[in-house]
Amino acid sequence: PSRPLAPLPAQEPVLWLGEVALPSEEEAASTFWYKFLRRLETGDAVWEGNGPHHDRTSIYNPCNLVDGVYCLPIGHWIEVSGHTDEMKHTTDFYFNIAGHQAIHCSR
C-alpha cells in the first residue's frame, strides 16, 4: 500500500512510499519494470509518462538492500510529454514555501 511520507498541500511535491513483494534473490537479478501512479483529487489515477517507452527499469543491486528492504532511488514524475518538468516542480515548491515564509536556515 502506498502512503505519503508527510501530509502536504496538493501543490507541493510529496514523497510516496509503496511496498512490493519481489521474487527471490536469484530471480531478482533480472530486470524489473515499473511505473509511478498519481491519484488525482477526483479519486481517479493516472500513470506517468505516455506509454511503455516511459517505463522505468531496475536491475537488482545488493548495495540497494538496507536492513532487508530494497530501496530504489528517488525519481521525478514523468509528464505525458516524456519530460520530468523538474524545474517547474522545484520552482512551485520554492515559491509555495517562500509565500508561507516557512523556510528556516541555521548552522
TrEMBL record:
Protein name (Swiss-Prot/TrEMBL): Uncharacterized protein
Taxonomic superkingdom: Eukaryota
GO cellular component: cytoplasm; nucleus
GO MF term list: carbohydrate binding; protein tyrosine phosphatase activity
Gene3D superfamilies: Immunoglobulins
Organism for this UniProt entry: Micrurus surinamensis
